[in-house]
Design goal:
The chain has about 120 residues and is an alpha/beta fold. It is about 40% helix and about 10% strand. The protein has a single domain, classed as Rossmann fold. Strands 1-2-3 form a 3-stranded parallel sheet, with helices on one face. Helix 4 links the parallel strand 1 and strand 2. The radius of gyration is 22 Å and the shape is globular. The model has no long low-confidence stretch (mean pLDDT about 80).
């Protein structure tokens, strides 16, 4: 073999091409653990429990008619519950199973919240 010819073991194989993605599952689990831990320790700093004024203005100020909404990253369901009380059909989804459990408790029966991970 010449100097510029790679050995067969040096050629990229399908599995080696994806090596940068190798640890994505553990990284995802670590992130989920982080969010669950923040909710377990109390209120997460990003989850104020108050619907932002922008949402209130959109729903009440603009007199937006009720419709359907998907609340991605709903946390403990503050905005999901607010929208539902204003006649919207809402589904709340969050990365944290702990946050979803709290949202379900806050919302009561007939509310839909889903987690992107194991419960």
């Amino acid at each position: 073999m010449g100097r510029g010819t790679p050995f067969p073991s040096n050629r990229a194989t399908p599995s080696s091409r994806w090596s940068p993605l190798k640890g994505w599952r553990s990284s995802l689990s670590l992130r989920r653990w982080f969010f669950d831990l923040r909710y377990l320790r109390g209120r997460a700093p990003w989850d104020t429990g108050v619907t932002p004024p922008e949402v209130v203005d959109l729903i009440e100020g603009a007199r937006l008619p009720p419709g359907r909404a998907l609340d991605l990253g709903c946390g403990t369901g503050t905005n999901t519950i607010y929208l539902a009380w204003h006649g919207w059909e809402v589904v709340g989804v969050d990365f944290s199973a702990v946050a979803i459990r709290r949202a379900r408790r806050r919302g009561g029966r007939g509310w839909t919240f889903a987690s992107t991970g194991p419960m």
